[in-house]
Amino acid sequence: MQDLAEGVARFQRGVFPAKADLFAHLAATHRPGTLFISCSDARVVPELLTQSEPGELFVIRTAGNLVPAYTPGADGIAASVEYAVGVLGVRDIVVCGHSACGAMTALAEGHDLAALPAVADWLRHADAAPAHADSADLAALIRGNVRAQLANLATHPSVARALAGHRLTLHGWVYDILTGKVEVLDAAPTAN
């Protein structure tokens, strides 16, 4: 915690004063252009990866960058998606997977998740990933999972309406931690 407290102190001393005008604007305005959905993995930092300023991205981070298909009822991810699209009016949604993803590795290698029942239940939202992959290796599963989550997003009523009205575009990315490269995916897998 000491490192975090020191980071806050550095932010208050240097970063905040240097961006005081931006923060004054953000205090009264919230208009991000993009909803960025990425993995909870600490090595994937959307604002760093995209070099975005505060206020530019509306971010959802989940294990495996998973987005459950829409179902009625209380759901924090669905509520965040609905708010981003219906209230904030984001024009783009990026689902960003990444190399060395623990969630996809667990699926690819068939890890025993009996001691992690919540994780096992959560990963069922990636069940369609293999059908969207163009081969059986981990990298293909990661890409297939991004495509599967894009398909799940399209089941959300606010997303479906915005797509139908040509007010929203969905994007799939895969970030390679080792190289820093970002692969841009088509919505559907390529044929072998």
Helix content range: 40-55%
Low-confidence stretches: 188-192
**Spatial order of the strands in the main sheet?**
2-1-3-4-5
Distance between the termini: 49 Å
Give the structural class. alpha/beta
Count of β-strands:
5
Mean pLDDT: 93
- C-alpha Rg, in Å? 18 Å
Largest β sheet strand count, sense and barrel closure: 5 strands, mixed
Strand percent estimate? 15-25%
Please give the oligomerization state of what you see: single chain
The dominant shape is globular
How many helices?
9
How do the SSEs run, as a string of H and E? HHEHEHEHHHHHEE
Write up this protein.
This protein is α/β, with parallel strands linked by helices and 192 residues long. The chain contains 9 helices and 5 strands. The chain has helices spanning 2-18, 20-26, 46-50, 76-86, 102-108, 117-122, 129-132, 138-153, 157-164, and strands spanning 34-39, 57-62, 92-98, 169-175, 182-185. The protein has a 5-stranded mixed beta sheet with strand order 2-1-3-4-5, covered by helices on one side. Helix 4 packs parallel to helix 9 (157-164). The chain is globular. Residues 188-192 have low confidence and may be disordered.
